[in-house]
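re the bet — no i am not wrong, look at it urself. input seq straight from the record:
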Amino acid sequence: MFYDFDVVVPAGTLESVPIEQELNLSYGVIHRVEVHFPAGCRGTVYLELLHRRHQIFPTLEDQAFHGDQFPIAFNDHYELFEPPHTLVARAYSPTANHNHTIMVRIGVLHPAYLAATGVAAALKQFIGTLIPKVIKRGK
């Protein structure tokens, strides 16, 4: 499942009093995160993602995502097995002159699907290592 959220950050929002928006997800594993700062942000809008009041993205707590026009996208493996299956987007923009809408997209997969695809991938990799050996022996 993919979730898509718009996080509106008013101009001049201080880091000491950030906006916070709940992002309701489902049981499973976060496998993909995308954060898109639209053109015009010029690195003046910052966003962090938290789970149970602990910052998980970006990993280091003294950092925040920021950018201008290009998405920040990465694969991960973060388990959301215990409720609530909710993240909090915390954002601020102390020097921004305009309100900005940051787009946050999060992919969550059920663990059973991950297990099935993990087994299939491992099998494919194993078979892939056998094929060159079989070809060499046939020469």
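see?? Helices lie at 111-138. told u. also The CA atoms of residues 115 and 121 lie 10 Å apart. so pay up
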